[in-house]
Amino acid sequence: MADNLEDIGQQAIDHLALKHVARERALPKSRTAIRHCANSIRATHRQEFCTAEGLRAQAVTLLMEMADDLHDHQDIYYAGFVQDAQKEYAEAVAFAALVQDSPLPSAEDLLIGWAPYLNGLAEAVGELRRYILDQLRQGHYDNGEHLLRRMDDIYALLITVDFPDAVTAGLRRTTDATRAILEKTRGDLTMALGQAQLQKSMLALQQELRNHKYHE
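Predicted structure:
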């Protein structure tokens, strides 16, 4: 009996030791992948698209390595930190695609889970808001309405995903935040476009008055 118990204990220790090693190998990769994705988003804001793409490529390499590291430890794979990295990757990819008016890849295209993908897509809306505001500050109004429509399309998709948070990783809460961001951006864009039109009308009126005075 004692010998049998000792064997069982050793098997348990060996198994958990392997699981621990796999986790410790994968966890830093998740953090690094998230950092690469954050830097990719910043590069996209600066319209440094090649740099952004390179950072995303580094992130996806780490995601694939984590999948290999945890292939035999699916409980650790789904513990959360891998999904966090997938979500950040989805956000970086979606944001770049939307800004460049490219087709959105699916979760299957990116080889990630649908819940992280949808949460990443929702968080890309916040980055789109920041991008639109930056464009407005620079006097670029043309693309704002187009990006706002894309934000609206994303929200319309998200509200159709009606499953428990345990299935969607808290997507409902993220969707509520997306709606607030969308409405605030709509108001800011409407005001900015109105001010730009008013300024344009005033400049036209001033020019007309100057022309009238010149001809007198």
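Summary: The chain has a mean pLDDT of 89.
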